[in-house]
Structure formats: structure tokens, C-alpha cells
Specification:
Helices cover 53% and strands 16% of the residues. By secondary structure, the chain is α/β, with parallel strands linked by helices. β5, α6 (124-135) and β6 (139-144) form a beta-alpha-beta unit.
């Protein structure tokens, strides 16, 4: 096996194993953070709420994949807010910074969960979406990387941060965490 690949794999392991989970400004260890995330999703499923997942660029790809996993594996009503004609309509009418928040105003309520993914945590459209969801008493989960004090990391009911400035590691790390939470439904309910 390529030695450089092994080094990158080891580096990825370190990033994911040292993920920081916070809720209400309280630090959770990785296992407790994953279980808290799973419990939020399990409670969502029991109350027949909807799971909305958003991101830009590569994070939108992560969101789409996670939507499939939560819908198919966990049986949760999950969707992204990236439908192209609606997305471009809202971007045109309300500005790109409001492309998600305007949809959330019309769709989301307190029985739902919003998962917001941004590698940098700086995307204004993602931050506005979380702020709008919070105003509607919707539970919010953020996944970020890059700077520890990024603005999105302060906004969720559960915040997951990966200590890396490498888009590849952060995006794959987010996907890995989301997939693990969805996979718990197979393990718990079989």
C-alpha cells in the first residue's frame, strides 16, 4: 500500500477521533456526542418530524448522501433544500444569503431537525438558515471544521467540529459521522 495513503489515513483517523461535540456550551466526548446525535434523530423519527440537511458545494454533496442514508437506513423523512428551480428562485428573489432561510421559514417547525454543514462555518446562507430554524424552536445540528471559533459552531443545539483546514478531510469526516449515526438505526433496531 502507498505509504502516503497510509499517512493520510492515520491523519484522518486522528481528526475524526478528536472531533469536538458541544451542546449548550458543554463538551461531550465523541461516543456521547454520537449517541446524543442518534437520540435526537430517534426522537425525531418517533414524533414523525422531518430532517432537513443543507450545505454548499461539497457539503451539499455530503447533505444529499446523508439524506439518502437517513431516509433509507433510518426510515426518517429526510430531504435537502437544494432542488435547483426552487433554489435558484429563492437566490434570485431573496439573495443567496437567504436561499435556505426563506425555505425554512415556510417548511420547518418545532418537531423537525435541521442539519447544517459548512466546512468553514462562515457561509452566511447556512448561518441564516440555522438562525431562522432557531427562531422557530427547531433543533439544529451543525457540522464544521477549520477555525475552532467559527460562527456556525456557536449556533446549534449540537455542534460538531473537526480540527482540520483540509476540505477533503472535513467533508469526508462529516460524511463519516453522519453515516455512523444513520447506521446506528440498523444496529439498534434489528
Amino acid at each position: 500500500m502507498d505509504l502516503d495513503l497510509l499517512k493520510r489515513l492515520d491523519h484522518f483517523y486522528k481528526i475524526v477521533s478528536k472531533s469536538e461535540f458541544t451542546s449548550n456550551n458543554q463538551q461531550l466526548n465523541v461516543d456521547d456526542g454520537i449517541m446524543f446525535f442518534f437520540q435526537l434523530c430517534n426522537d425525531l423519527k418517533k414524533r414523525a418530524g422531518n430532517l432537513y440537511i443543507i450545505g454548499n458545494g461539497g457539503s451539499a454533496g455530503v447533505a444529499a448522501h446523508a439524506t439518502t442514508d437517513f431516509f433509507n437506513i433510518a426510515g426518517i423523512k429526510a430531504t435537502t433544500l437544494h432542488e435547483s428551480s426552487l433554489f435558484s428562485c429563492f437566490a434570485n428573489d431573496y439573495g443567496y444569503e437567504n436561499v435556505f432561510s426563506k425555505q425554512i421559514e415556510k417548511l420547518v417547525d418545532e418537531k423537525d431537525i435541521l442539519i447544517a454543514i459548512s466546512s468553514s462555518g462562515n457561509s452566511m446562507n447556512i448561518r441564516n438558515a440555522v438562525l431562522t430554524a432557531n427562531k422557530k424552536n427547531t433543533q439544529t445540528i451543525t457540522l464544521t471544521g477549520f477555525k475552532k471559533n467559527n460562527p456556525l459552531r456557536q449556533l446549534g443545539n449540537l455542534n460538531i467540529w473537526l480540527n482540520s483546514c483540509d476540505y477533503g478531510f472535513v467533508e469526508i469526516g462529516h460524511q463519516f459521522i453522519l453515516h455512523n449515526v444513520a447506521d446506528k438505526f440498523n444496529k439498534v433496531f434489528k
